[in-house]
Amino acid sequence: MKVDIPLTPPEEIGFPDFVGWFHSNILIPCPLYIITTVDEHGIPNAQPNTWGLPFGDKFAQFFVFYDWASHHTIQNIITTKEFVINIPSEDQVSQAMRTVEHYPRGVDEIAASGLTAIPSIAVKVPRIEECKTHFECRLCWYKETHRRGQDDAGVLVLGEIVAASGDNDVLAGTSPEKIENMKTVYVLSRNVDTLNMKITNSMTYGTIDRLKDFLQLEKDGRVEYI
Ligand SMILES: Cc1cc2nc3c(=O)[nH]c(=O)nc-3n(C[C@H](O)[C@H](O)[C@H](O)COP(=O)(O)O)c2cc1C
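A: This is the predicted complex of the input protein with flavin mononucleotide.
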């Protein structure tokens, strides 16, 4: 028997808990990454984000994500047409979370979060040294999806990946070794108080190294493709 999953939370679930409500019900984890950008004066900004994915083929690679128009991140991207996706491993989750702090414009959010900016290969936006892999992107387009009250909107952002890099220790070795070293973080649910830019409950997440169980199944021939 199928039951409906409501698209909106019940009345009693108010702000800010509704932010992660749907996702904590559909059980589709999303990868954790930090988006870095710079403003028109070159001052870096950093934002943790989970609603995005890389895709592409041998002709081009892309990264698509969803942001709110009120965030410095999308405002900087519209100005400079560049951004970098920095992927932390599980060991950097607490550090990565510090970038959720909403600093006033003009503050270097990478330094303020206790992280280290290093130059990128192809874009002016810096990478975060502590993260394990990096996708440097140029903006292709952005599109408003819907209004969020009077002052805000959802924005879908597409960038072409023009350079990619990572730490040698996660890029070397066999797939299971890479997975073990990388420990990519997948977030199931999280809530953020977007007024005060604080996490309001503990985040539920898992890491990619558990996928090695699937690799093993595949090797043993126990996974069948139709
Ligand atoms: C784990 C986590 C995931 C988040 N994912 C998103 C997201 O996918 N899209 C978004 O607009 N905000 C997301 N946020 C909220 C922003 O990171 C937060 O509002 C941030 O302060 C915005 O920073 P900025 O104004 O410097 O861009 C997330 C926050 C956390 C802690």
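Confidence is low (pLDDT under 50) at residues 193-198. The two ends are 24 Å apart (CA to CA).
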